[in-house]
Amino acid sequence: MYIDSHAHIDAPAFHADRHDVIQRARSGGVELILDIGAGYLEEGTIDVALALAEQYDFIYLAFGIHPHDARWYDDRWEKKLMELSAHPKVLAWGEIGLDYHYDHSPRAVQQDVFRRQLQLARQRRLPVIIHTRDAEHDTLGILRQEWQGSGLGGIMHCFTGTEAFARACLDLGLYISFSGILTFGNAEALRRIAQTIPLDRVLIETDCPLLAPVPVRGKRNEPFNVRYVAETLGRLRGLTPASVGQITSENFRRLFGLLPEEGD
Ligand SMILES: [Zn+2]
Ligand SMILES: [Zn+2]
């Protein structure tokens, strides 16, 4: 059984066959999906996300303004996010962060909006889902100022950074989540880093509809494919895909307080 810790199944790419996609995930052993309502934050997709969480007990939600969209952040969005963050199926605030690769929003605006949302997540006592690309230095600087000591933790999602960056994230109490990139032919450096992360801090994700892993690379991605990330991680760590599933699911549940109560 696997947990897809980062999926965008509310995205328009799934409008035609969303329920088939979810059924396929279930029959492929996906026990829980965290749907990230970022990147497509329009009223329509928020409604889709909320309806999914209502219909399926194994679908949970996170909302935040993606760094790409930071320039659209305003009081109206902030109010909306605060409302959404109180929803019982919302586990985290995100994805938020910095993306200097695409620079869809000015960097200073990205930094302000990242800071602001970290402060709000702190108020709401929610872990955060962090997106960072070509911005490791500034991401760490802001996390150290705004997140260190919160005790709330979070996820460095779709990890593609250096080993030093991974260590810094672990020091900040974050979990490291690997996507289909781990399976790519040119990802040798990333696979080496994946061998060094403590197993109790690792998660797996699809980030679908993007980043389909080998052997389905280039196709539309979906939660079913999280198994291929588990297989690759298992090969690297000398574990079966099933144990990777078990370990990463337990990590996810620990982070979000979803572990079953232990009997006394
Ligand atoms: Zn992302
Ligand atoms: Zn994402």
What does this structure look like?
This protein has one domain (2-255): TIM Barrel. The radius of gyration is 17 Å and the shape is globular. The chain is an alpha/beta fold. The two termini are 26 Å apart. It has an eight-stranded parallel β-sheet. The model has no long low-confidence stretch (mean pLDDT 96). Helix 4 (107-124) packs parallel to helix 5 and helix 8 packs across helix 9 (241-255). The longest helix is centred in the middle third of the chain and has 18 residues, at 107-124. It has helices at 18-27, 43-55, 75-85, 107-124, 136-146, 163-171, 188-194, 226-237, 241-255, and strands at 2-7, 30-36, 59-63, 90-99, 128-133, 154-156, 174-178, 202-204.
Give the arrangement of secondary structure elements.
Elements: E1 2-7, H1 18-27, E2 30-36, H2 43-55, E3 59-63, H3 75-85, E4 90-99, H4 107-124, E5 128-133, H5 136-146, E6 154-156, H6 163-171, E7 174-178, H7 188-194, E8 202-204, H8 226-237, H9 241-255
Parallel strand pairs: 1-2, 2-3, 3-4, 4-5, 5-6, 6-7, 7-8
One zinc ion binds at residues 6, 8, 36, 39, 95, 207.
Outline of the structure:
By secondary structure, this protein is of the alpha/beta class. Helices cover 40% and strands 17% of the residues. An eight-stranded parallel β-sheet has the order 1-2-3-4-5-6-7-8.
- Biggest β-sheet: count, sense, barrel? 8 strands, parallel
CATH class: Alpha Beta
Helical amount = 40-55%
Q: What is the CATH topology descriptor? A: TIM Barrel
Order of helices and strands: EHEHEHEHEHEHEHEHH
| SS content category | alpha/beta
The total number of structural domains is 1
- The CATH architecture category equals Alpha-Beta Barrel
Question: How much is the average pLDDT?
Answer: 96
The fourth-level CATH homologous superfamily is Metal-dependent hydrolases
Low-confidence stretches: none
Question: Count of helical segments?
Answer: 9
Ends distance: 26 Å
Query: Bound compounds, please?
Result: zinc ion
Largest sheet strand order: 1-2-3-4-5-6-7-8
